[in-house]
């Protein structure tokens, strides 16, 4: 008990902890310690960012994927997934709708679609920047070559989300057939070298994970110092090999959000869709644990049901771009509000 609250105090004051103490906190954190850490994370967030919560328009540009990640509903082997690809015009249409709603960041996310060539993608990014020069383009398109990342950066994309998924190379290999942890880290290093604001992160509660691997996730991110950190609970998708595994825990996700905020005071940390899907109050609880970003869904409503990374994924109401007014009302209930700025990283 004493050791736990001392660890919490050290984390608050120093922004880091040795591995053993992180493991201990992740396994034995009692409710008072959790609330104390969440309070400290909340104060850190308010001190840096005030009461504003940044919003990003999430455009799911396609669900064709060459990978076969065991947890993911759009994995290659899922024959039941109905595949789609948005055209450039459809994506520009999403941006237009999003701009009118006040969004100033567009996140283009999709599976690793081999037919998504650099040329058309660079052209699309450049066109978005031409039409809406006051907006940021974030990419979340998985592993690509360094030359590709460079070309897309030159076209005008300035942020890239690539979760490391797990710091444990063996667990990484087990969850991602044919992929390697080393290559993942090379991609992240390349993104940072090029100058992207880079996002990392992991799911909480994916089978095979434990307090040790989670502590290693925290230490890996401490080493890379990403500008953005995305974490959310693992949620089973019934058509995948992990379809019967239990969902990740709300409590552990909130604890990790608080720890991450204390370790990365300036990072942009979303209350993710997975967290909002896990629990009705998930989004607000995440914000009250140190998150400061929400990513409402801006995909064409007809395609949203097809981007099924996990079952029951929230994509309407407050998780939808059309629901920004409702989102703002929910934020006001916890003393926060939408910040419509671009919300670039400020270290
Ligand atoms: N549950 C929760 N998150 C998932 N992701 C993929 N599948 C799931 C799932 N079943 C996350 C991965 C990926 C991000 C886009 O979505 O961490 O990086």
Topology, pairings included?
Elements: H1 2-14, H2 19-28, H3 31-49, E1 52-55, E2 57-62, H4 88-101, E3 105-110, H5 118-131, E4 136-140, H6 146-155, E5 157-161, H7 169-175, H8 181-194, E6 197-200, E7 203-204, H9 211-224, E8 228-229, E9 232-233, H10 250-263, H11 273-278, H12 282-287, E10 293-294, H13 301-304, H14 324-333, E11 337-339
This protein binds 5'-deoxyadenosine.
The helix content, as a percent range, equals 40-55%
Mean pLDDT: 97
- Following the backbone from N to C, one meets helices and strands in this order, namely HHHEEHEHEHEHHEEHEEHHHEHHE
Strand-residue proportion: 5-15%
Name the hetero compounds present: 5'-deoxyadenosine
The strand line-up of the biggest sheet is: 2-3-4-5-6-8
Sum up the overall morphology in one term.
globular
- Classify the secondary structure makeup into a structural class: alpha/beta
Walkthrough of the structure:
- With 347 residues, the protein is of the alpha/beta class.
- The protein is 45% helix and 12% strand.
- The protein is built from 14 helices and eleven strands.
- The protein has helices spanning 2-14, 19-28, 31-49, 88-101, 118-131, 146-155, 169-175, 181-194, 211-224, 250-263, 273-278, 282-287, 301-304, 324-333; strands at residues 52-55, 57-62, 105-110, 136-140, 157-161, 197-200, 203-204, 228-229, 232-233, 293-294, 337-339.
- The strands form three sheets. The protein has a six-stranded parallel beta sheet with strand order 2-3-4-5-6-8. The chain has a three-stranded parallel beta sheet with strand order 10-1-11, covered by helices on one side. Strands 7-9 form a two-stranded parallel ribbon.
- The mean pLDDT is 97.
- The structure holds 5'-deoxyadenosine.
